Structure formats: C-alpha cells, structure tokens
Amino acid sequence: MSHHEVRPAELDIRDVSCTAGGREVLSRVSLTAEPGEVLGVVGPNGAGKSTLLRTAYRQLRPAEGRVLLDGADVFRMPRRSLARRLAALPQETPAEFELTAHDVAAMGRAPHRRRIGGDRLGDERIVTVSLEMVEMAELAHRQFAQLSGGEKQRVLIARALVQEPGMLVLDEPTNHLDMRHQFDVLALVRRLNVTTLAALHDLNLAARFCDRICVLAAGEAVAIGTPVEVLTESLLSEVYGVHTEVGTHPRTGAPTVLFGD
Length: 261
Ligand SMILES: Nc1ncnc2c1ncn2[C@@H]1O[C@H](COP(=O)(O)OP(=O)(O)OP(=O)(O)O)[C@@H](O)[C@H]1O
Hints:
Elements: E1 11-20, E2 23-33, E3 38-42, H1 49-56, E4 64-69, E5 72-73, H2 79-85, E6 86-89, H3 101-106, H4 120-133, H5 149-162, E7 167-171, H6 179-191, E8 195-199, H7 203-209, E9 212-217, E10 220-225, H8 227-230, H9 233-240, E11 244-248, E12 255-259
Parallel strand pairs: 3-8, 3-9, 6-7, 7-8
Antiparallel strand pairs: 1-2, 1-4, 4-5, 9-10, 11-12
C-alpha cells in the first residue's frame, strides 16, 4: 500500500459550538491534530464526542466556529476533494445490503476514481491490501450484512484505508472488536503516517496508542495533553465520577487506569 506516500493532514477545530434539540452540546471546542498525530477524544456518554467528530467529517455543520483541514474550511470544500484527504468511520454501521465485504471496502476508492479509465488494477490492489491489514481478506466474498459486528467494523476500517486519506476520523474504532483486534486496529493506525482523531471509550487503549488525549465533559474540552498529563485520578474522578487507581505500564510507561475500591 502506498500509505507512506500520502502526506498526513492537519486538522484544526476552532471554537466549535453545536446545538442539538435546542441545547448546546458542544461549547467552543478548539483542538488541533498535528500532521501524523494520533489524537484521542474521551469522555462520558453524551459528552459530545460523536458530535465533535461529525463536524470534522462534515456531517454536522457547527452553529459557530470552523473546521479546517490543511487550512481549508471543510464545509467549503467540494465533497470529493474532502473525501480524497479525509476518511471517516462513523458510529452507526450503514446497512449495505446485497454488497460483499469486498464491495463495501472498494467504495472507498470512489473519490479517487476518474470518470473514464483509471487504474482499476491499482484500485483493486489497494482494496486487497486494506482488507489484509484488518484481517478480512479471507471473508471478502461474504455478504457484508451477514458479518459479525466486529467483522463489519474491520471492513469499514478497511474502507477508510482504501480512501488513502491524510486524515482519519474514527468514532469508536474498537467498538465490537475483541481484545486482539482492538490492539491490532489501533497499532495499525499508529503505524500508518496518517493524522487520526479517534473517539475512544477505553482509557487504557487511549493511553497506549494516542499521542495526546482530549477529554470532553458536558460539551467542553476540559483537558488536552499527553496521556500522562491528562489521565489523572483527580480528573477521572471529576469527569466520570469514579474512583480510579492510575499506575504506569511497566514496559511502555503509558498510564494504566484501574477501578479503585
Ligand atoms: N439530534 C439530536 N437531538 C437532540 N440531542 C442530541 C442530538 N444529537 C446528539 N444529541 C445530544 O448531544 C449530546 C452529545 O451527544 P454525542 O453523541 O456527541 O455524545 P458522545 O460523547 O459521543 O456519547 P457516547 O459516549 O454515548 O457515544 C448528548 O446529550 C445527546 O443526547
């Protein structure tokens, strides 16, 4: 795959506010993902993680503020140009009936395809390699709708990789995945030189794989920093209302979060 040749993007979320159901659900959130950075977004249910990510992949127009990809407003870009630079894994699995896993992954090529001609063989190779990266090549011929939750999730991650983006926006990429696939998918994201904004629930995974973590609570970014800076017992108690024991991984040095007593 030619991922290493793709230039990582810069995402700049500036003072973004969103309202839903007559309520402000994001309040002046600012966040910059530097090229190549893996930036995690954590926070309790309803904190606004998906809302923030949806503004980044242009599914939701913020009431105020701007979202810039490589300095250009995503809401002013042609859809196709955006899709060539940014791929998203939304929280809801689309119902792609009748399509095989291969077909769903291949949809990621659409923004790169020319009207006439194009590099069909090259496209096909990228689809195959991406499915291999998430260990779904062997199930490529299966109907997408009949796959398990974790298998579907991995096909959708492959579809995002097929886009060869400079920016990945992943809403709970480890949702439905077993322990090994959680690890493998995030390790894969880490290896690729692609800027990544990912909403994660598992703080230990976030600590292990993110360069920085943004903590959202009630629509506000209450902390942004490295895992060590952000994942403290006092902050977790304040934000989640749980007593935790934060330690240090003996080999990686990443913080580890355990429930307290
Ligand atoms: N269309 C909508 N109408 C009304 N309220 C909405 C709508 N969309 C989102 N909300 C509310 O906005 C808040 C933020 O939702 P969001 O999905 O961004 O949270 P989240 O942090 O991703 O949560 P979770 O961890 O549960 O996935 C929630 O209180 C939610 O109920």
